[in-house]
Amino acid sequence: LTVTFARRGGGGRRARLRLEHDGPRGSTEVELEGFALPEPRPELTVTPRTLHFGDRPVGQRSGIETLRLRNTGTARLNLRRIALAGADASAFQIVPGTCDGLPFLAPGGDCTVGMRFVPTAPGELRARLVIRHDARDRETVVGLSGRGLSP
């Protein structure tokens, strides 16, 4: 007789297997116990979640601000795409960091993305850095903002 424990979610499970037979008591019970670990999953944590570059004269680039991407999950995190989006996306630049060309992050692994602000017009400018991956939410967004000052 073979008994198999099939994982359904995390946590402990108990059962009894009753074997009917023609022995003196007519049946025997066997206690079964198993513990299922949660299914491994990737989880992306990005810090910080927003970047505000402050005031800059139009056309003058800021210093580089760094974002840290970390896989805080228990499975490999596949990085699909990192791109700028939004009406003022041209006022922000992705600067090479350690995430460039990196296809995935192992559990506990991290990498960096650099960001720069180069205002293209006066006024408040906003965009988003969109990080696409294979964790539960599929996409992580970092808010970007800065104010362009007239020359």
Notes on the protein architecture:
With 151 residues, the protein is mainly beta. The relative contact order is 0.24. It has no helices and 11 strands. Helices cover 0% and strands 56% of the residues. The chain has strands at residues 11-20, 27-36, 44-47, 50-57, 65-71, 77-85, 92-95, 104-105, 110-117, 123-133, 139-149.
SSE map:
Elements (H helix, E strand, L loop, with lengths): L10 E10 L6 E10 L7 E4 L2 E8 L7 E7 L5 E9 L6 E4 L8 E2 L4 E8 L5 E11 L5 E11 L2
Parallel strand pairs: 4-11
Antiparallel strand pairs: 1-2, 3-5, 5-9, 6-8, 6-10, 7-9, 10-11
Average predicted confidence as pLDDT: 93
Q: What gap, in angstroms, lies between the N and C termini?
A: 83 Å
What best-fitting shape do the alpha-carbon axes yield?
rod-shaped
Order of helices and strands: EEEEEEEEEEE
Residues in helix, %: under 10%
Give the class from helix and strand content and strand pairing.
mainly beta
List segments where confidence is low: pLDDT < 50 over at least 5 consecutive residues. none
Strand order in the largest sheet: 4-11-10-6-8
The total beta strand count reads 11
Number of helices in the DSSP assignment: 0
In terms of DSSP E residues, the strand content is over 45%
Give the structure's gist in a few sentences.
The protein has 151 residues and is an all-beta fold.
